[in-house]
Amino acid sequence: MGSVPVEALKSRLIESNEEYRQLAEQHSEYAQRLDELAAKPYPTPDEQFEESRLKKLKLHLKDQMQRMLLTYQQQAS
What we know:
The protein is an all-alpha fold. The protein is 83% helix and 0% strand. It has one domain (6-76). The chain is elongated.
């Protein structure tokens, strides 16, 4: 009994599950904005606050996506 690679499961979820797809898109947007903020040599206090907030939101999304992935894996087995 071979297991399906995690990346393949993520791809299937993105294709078949609207909620997962939206979470993945939001996660990607947060990551892109964090990259923009990290590139600033002297971020303002507001930018530093935004960076901290986005990191927490991004982690929350990652946790949600992981729970969905585990549920999908269990259902697929």
